Amino acid sequence: MVQVIFGVLLLGGTAFLWGKYRPKKRDSLELCLLCTVMGVWSLFLSDGVWWLQATGHLMQAVVFACCLLELRREWIFRQRAIRRMAKAVRPVPKAAKTSAVAVSRFAA
Q1: pLDDT tens figures, 44-75
Q2: What is the reported pLDDT for 52?
Q3: Where are the alpha helices (DSSP H) in 22-49?
Q4: Is 47 in contact with 53 (CB distance < 8 Å)?
Q5: pTM of the model
Q6: Is the N or the C terminus of the chain less surrounded, counting Cβ atoms within 10 Å?
Q7: Nearest to 89 by CA among 81, 99, 79
């Protein structure tokens, strides 16, 4: 029963992360796939020796944490790139345009 609960939690958490961060890179996609496979695998396993279950739950938690950190890192890099692109595309202020035109008129 504990395996099923952890499997459902892992699948739900992975679906939430997938929906929130929308992974694009291959590493992120592979980690999400790994979390999903571990969640489904956990649903099919029966209860067994307690230490083996504890090891499995610990591994699931570690993989989920890695997935969370990788998706968050990718999202932060995407946001920085968007901000950098927005900064690079900003129009030149009018004061700078007029002064450049005025200088070129006097030079001619």
Answers
A1: 887 778 888 889 899 999 999 999 999 999 99
A2: 86
A3: 26-44
A4: yes
A5: 0.74
A6: C
A7: 81
